[in-house]
Amino acid sequence: MLRIGVTGGIGSGKTTVCRFFEELGVPVLSADKIAKSLSETDPQIRTKLRRILGRDAYTADGRLNRKIVADAIFANPMLVRKVNTVVHPKAASKILKQLRRLERNGEPLAIVEAALIYEGGLDANLDVVIVVHTALRKRKERAASRRGFSAKDIIRRQRAQWPAEKKKKLADVVIENNGTRRDLKRTVRHLHKILILMTTGKKP
Fold first, then answer.
1. How many angstroms separate the CA atoms of 188 and 130, rounded?
2. Per-residue pLDDT for the chain (204 aa), expressed as one digit of tens each?
3. How far apart are CA 86 and CA 82, in angstroms?
4. Is residue 16 in a domain?
5. What CATH number does the domain containing 183 carry?
6. Domain range for 93
7. Which of 86, 84, 110 is nearest to 29 (CA)?
8. DSSP notation for 95-147
9. CA distances in angstroms from 146 to 10, 11, 105, 169, 190, listed in the order given
């Protein structure tokens, strides 16, 4: 099975790329969703995050208060590192277990969607890393319109990640997402055919 990572900055379109792959039958593991689930269900992680971020990091019903957490960590790079040290190892372990399960089930491809593939060292367990890149102006427009982020929010999140150019140099594949949604879908379909050919030796 070919293990594929998809990463990119906020507003780059990496989630859309993963959605297109899902439409083609490729299973996608979201590192963000896995990390959030662990943050809410793993007692050790919950205890450590409360120590780092305070009791307000969780709502009264035990859910992660993502707004408060995001405001805290993206204003303080040291907190980002502390939180990542707590959450990333267990999230990575769970991702690897799920990848092994998918491989046993005979899947030819599987995707891990993660904003911090390189920063967290997850690339060491992947065969191919795709970086989705979009011009900064477009990224800001998308993030503001679709997720309600302000320019300040976007800049804070960018600072917590490696520069786009650094990721592009390390990537196996770079998708320049500056066109239409149809253009992006066409690119993903073409890439899917290549990846299937790489792992099965057959055209899809």
1. 11
2. 999 999 998 888 999 999 999 999 999 999 999 999 999 999 999 999 999 998 889 998 889 888 888 878 777 878 888 998 999 999 999 999 999 999 999 999 999 999 989 988 899 999 999 999 988 777 777 666 665 566 666 666 777 778 889 999 999 999 999 999 999 999 999 999 999 998 888 777
3. 7
4. yes
5. 3.40.50.300
6. 2-35+88-200
7. 110
8. HHHHHHHHHHTT-SEEEEE-TTTTTTTGGGG-SEEEEEE--HHHHHHHHHHHH
9. 11, 9, 35, 28, 27
Are 64 and 40 in contact by the 8 Å Cβ rule? The answer is yes
Domain count for the chain, please give it: 1
CA–CA dist 65, 79 (Å, integer):
16
The verdict on residue 54 lying in a domain is: no
- CB-hemisphere CA count at 13 Å for 52? 24
Contacts with 10 (C-beta within 8 Å, 6 or more apart), sequence order:
115, 139, 143, 147, 149, 154, 157, 158
Give the whole-angstrom CA distance, residue 144 versus residue 153.
Answer: 9
Q: Do the domain assignments include residue 181?
A: yes
Residue 61 lies in a domain: no
Give dist(CA 101, CA 130) in Å, integer: 22
For the CA atoms of 31, 36, 41, 45, the dihedral, rounded to the nearest 10 degrees, stands at 90
